[in-house]
């Protein structure tokens, strides 16, 4: 079994990959999508040239912004009959991370998708995780992030699953939620989705998923409309109640819920007009 490492990066952040790419391993291919929005200096051009001469690297360049577009560019290069792991450009790999991912699929051959744990920079769980291995449900997928997931490439290729480019950081419409939508699209297509409590990367606490600004709240409402359709109204109410302690310094419950409902309505109205 071979492993694709899917890495999305932008401009000079590609230099972070020096901490991710390992010594050559015939079973590992690094698929790098590099969004370039500015002139590249000599250091960047030199490093890109080094990457292009590695037999285990596939390098693709994009001229525009958007995390979902960047991730979709990595999916263009998926190799059949492999496992693919999504890795952000600012992570630190845990010991034996790539081996543990491959081993997880070998030991659980029926799984199409496996999520793992992320640690913060102090080696603590990035968020609350179950203590034991379990199959995912609709509920457990709610807080999933792409940098903790791996999947069988054949399932994504055969079902033509892609990231929704209207969502995620860098989007002019809904700047959040591309990771949850991707996971839910897999779920809707009956993927067998497993969680295993093994840490694979360390990641700083700077995700938009923990941001409560007005645009992100609006995007959350749109995400729920994308996933649940008109039932998103119920989900918006539930989510607003569940997280009120977390956003109470920025919003009242009613203002927060109104902003979420606005996002849901915006998405549904756009869908109807399409």
CATH class of the largest domain: Alpha Beta
Number of strands: 9
Counting structural domains, the number is 2
* Biggest β-sheet description: 9 strands, mixed
Protein name: Glycosyltransferase family A protein
InterPro entries: Nucleotide-diphossugar_trans (IPR029044)
Task: Explain what this protein looks like in three dimensions.
With 274 residues, the chain is of the alpha/beta class. It folds into 2 domains: 2-208, Spore Coat Polysaccharide Biosynthesis Protein SpsA, Chain A, CATH 3.90.550.10; 211-273. The protein has 9 helices and 9 strands. Strands 1, 2, 3, 4, 5, 6, 7, 8 and 9 form a 9-stranded mixed sheet that branches. Helix 6 (214-228) crosses helix 7. The protein is globular. 36% of the residues are buried. The model has no long low-confidence stretch (mean pLDDT 93). This is Glycosyltransferase family A protein. It comes from Sulfurovum zhangzhouensis. InterPro entries: Nucleotide-diphossugar_trans.
List the topology elements.
Elements: E1 2-10, E2 28-35, H1 42-52, E3 57-62, H2 67-75, E4 82-88, E5 92-93, H3 97-107, E6 113-119, E7 134-135, E8 149-152, H4 153-159, H5 178-188, E9 193-202, H6 214-228, H7 232-242, H8 244-247, H9 253-273
Parallel strand pairs: 1-2, 1-4, 2-3, 6-9
Antiparallel strand pairs: 4-8, 5-9, 6-8, 7-9
Helix pairs in contact: 6-7, 6-9, 7-9
InterPro entries: Nucleotide-diphossugar_trans
Protein name: Glycosyltransferase family A protein
């Amino acid at each position: 079994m071979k492993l694709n490492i899917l890495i999305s990066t932008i401009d000079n952040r590609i230099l972070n990959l020096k901490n991710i790419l390992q010594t050559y391993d015939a079973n590992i291919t690094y698929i790098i999508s590099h969004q370039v929005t500015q002139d590249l200096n000599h250091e960047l051009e030199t490093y890109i040239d080094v990457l292009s001469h590695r037999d285990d690297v596939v390098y693709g360049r994009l001229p525009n912004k958007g995390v979902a577009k960047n991730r979709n560019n990595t999916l263009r290069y998926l190799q059949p009959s492999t496992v693919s792991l999504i890795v952000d450009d600012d992570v630190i790999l845990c010991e034996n991370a790539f081996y543990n991912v491959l081993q997880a699929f070998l030991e659980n051959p029926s799984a199409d998708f496996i999520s793992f744990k992320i640690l913060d920079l102090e080696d603590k769980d990035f968020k609350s995780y179950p203590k034991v291995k379990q199959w995912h449900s609709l509920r457990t997928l709610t807080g999933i992030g792409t940098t903790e997931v791996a999947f069988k490439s054949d399932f994504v290729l055969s079902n033509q699953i892609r990231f929704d480019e209207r969502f995620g950081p860098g989007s002019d419409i809904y700047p959040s939620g591309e990771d949850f939508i991707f996971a839910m699209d897999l779920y809707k297509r009956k993927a067998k989705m497993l969680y295993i409590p093994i840490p694979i990367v360390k990641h700083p606490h700077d995700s938009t998923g923990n941001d409560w600004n007005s645009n992100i709240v609006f995007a959350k409402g749109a995400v729920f409309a994308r996933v649940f359709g008109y039932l998103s109204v119920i989900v918006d109410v539930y989510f607003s109640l569940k997280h009120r302690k977390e956003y109470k310094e920025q919003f009242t419950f009613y203002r927060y819920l109104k902003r979420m409902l606005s996002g849901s309505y915006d998405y549904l109205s756009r869908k109807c007009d399409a």
